[in-house]
Input
Amino acid sequence: MESRRQLKGRGKSPTHRIFEKPIARRERVFGAAHATAIQRSPLQIEVPLKCKWRRRVGDLPVEIPGAQPADADDGHHGIVVGEIGPFELDPATRRSLDNALGLGGSRFTVMQSKLPGEAATGRQDMGIHVSTEGVRVAAAQGSGYQNRDSKEIYAEYSPDYPKVIIHPLDTSKFQLVMNEVKTFHLIALSRTSRDLIALTIRCFHAKKFMSTPSILQTVLPVQLPDTAGCFPQ
Output
């Protein structure tokens, strides 16, 4: 979209072009593409403009570090790339992740986040069981609060679910999306515990749908020998 504003006494009209690019499902990146001051004469003057790129996570825009907008050398168009990772794990967390993957699963204790309008005492202890086949969430044994989500929920790995969405600001909060209609808003016991839950689920999910043979077939496809002109012996 464009917006024009007259500059008093200069006869110039700067044009600001603001655009958005879709990055992924439910994610958008916003930025200012370019701004110029147009005189009534053919001369054009470039106006320096600093912009920031942000990804929309739900309703919250989160800045993408290191992303640069296209400049005049690119003709004011191009591709913006944002990356997450690789993850740097301390030795203790790495050992815990290796143990979980080697044993074929692990159990984690979390707390369900308070919903809007709910009393602070309404939080419920939950248990997450991550295995090679799927993720199971249920109320922790001995939890006295059973009014919300007391039934066990299980989700097998599929191309889209289950998935973990890390809170961009809080180091212990995350969302566990089990399917199209069921999402848990959870609080881990610590940042390390939250990261371990996310990494364990993502590793098992990747192994389920990105097997070593399929990766090798994509990277190094099998080349069938050229049999043209050859006759069986």
